[in-house]
Amino acid sequence: MLSNSLAELDRRHLVHPVSSFRGHEARGVRLLQSARGAVVTDAEGRDLIDGFAGLWCVNAGYGHESVVEAAAAQMRQLPYATGYFDLGAEAPIRLAAELAERAPGDLDHVYFCLGGSDAVDSTIRFIRYYWHSRGKPQRDLFISVGQGYHGSASGGAGLTALPAFHEGFGLPYDWQHKISSHYIYRNPVGQDPQAIIDASLAELRAKLAEIGEDRVAAFYVEPIQGSGGVLVPPPGWIKAMRDLCAEHEVLFVADEVITGFGRTGPLFACEDEGIVPDLMTVAKGLTSGYVPMGAVFMRNHVYETIAEGAGAKAVGHGFTYSAHPVSAAVALEVLALYEGGLFENGRRMGARLMAGLAELRDHPLVGDVRGRGMLAAVELVTDKRNKTPLPAALDPANRLFDRAWEQGLIVRSFAQGILGYAPPLCCTADEIDAIVERSRKVLDLTLEDP
Ligand code: PMP
């Protein structure tokens, strides 16, 4: 069968580091052949609801002809114009202006790159240049949050707080520091929101004192931590941390690679928090996965400080595919679809998803249900009172993923036994209900046979 020979070629030649190097445990690729709306079809012709929008990215859903047409028209007219220096194309300029108009506060300057990882690494370079421009190059230490994820390029992988991204890679760098996560369900200080905020503030203050507050360049947060297991901070946590950073002149970076573009309701999750970060990264939903693109937003003071510091000199940062016209044309069309009804649908379906998943709370295996909008997680435990995780020996991540797949549902399953959801914003009410019902079936099957 074609899919068998492709799977064999994949095993032999295509490197997927997260799974390829697992020797005899390698699971082999599952081939998808097409997709429409929120439904993907596998190589055997079976339909599955994509409860994870690819990798939290296909926010608009699959199969929008207008996006395909926008890309094709741009390819025909002008497939490439470098954004590296000042040879421009219309689409990225228009896109930057549209995004600047919608971004919180004066995040008016947009640098385009290829995805989230290089967006994060670009912020590290811009921030170093910013402090160099302010005559404070000793501000070269970066702080991020436990359980955080900031990409796979070296700088961001060091800011990431997941062990697999460090071990064997010589990370984190000695200029990278962490404070503990705000993980509400499993927080050593308990689940009281104010106690968690106070503990995080105390820890960040202690960290600033320990490493030298005049040495700290920036603090990175995800408005909701995604890859760490969909960890929603207590209300007010982001604002409290943002204010503490401002007090100490530490730049505040919001990594909205997952939370941007309607994932939690508004265009950017920072809007829910009532804050304006100094820099903000986005990717994924920017082009909804149709083509790669990421972006860094900078506030006026960041942009102007860098410009003043540079004077007549070039600031040596840029990629061949920065501000790619085809990606920008896609992003413009995707934005039109979002604002033409998808954001609104996503907000309604997000409420339905959260309400549906909340009903799973009574299930004997469910310890926690959390999320906001179309970003959610269900955390499984074997003992609710002691919050005992599923035994690691059972490989819960793969078992849960496989069981959901058998039920016709794609979810993300995290190693600790957490089901993650990030469905396309175009989902219908029936699809949302099916996501919840199929999840319940996965829980029942896991209860019968862990
Ligand atoms: N930051 C965050 C918060 C992310 O979730 C991700 C990807 N999951 C990245 C950065 C890296 O983005 P990319 O995979 O597009 O490089």
TrEMBL record:
It comes from the Bacteria. It holds the Pfam family Aminotran_3. GO terms for molecular function: pyridoxal phosphate binding; transaminase activity. The keyword Repeat does not apply. InterPro entries: Aminotrans_3, Aminotrans_3_PPA_site, PyrdxlP-dep_Trfase, PyrdxlP-dep_Trfase_major, PyrdxlP-dep_Trfase_small. The keyword Transferase applies. Keywords: Aminotransferase, Pyridoxal phosphate, Transferase. Its cofactor is pyridoxal 5'-phosphate. Belongs to the class-III pyridoxal-phosphate-dependent aminotransferase family. This is Aspartate aminotransferase family protein.
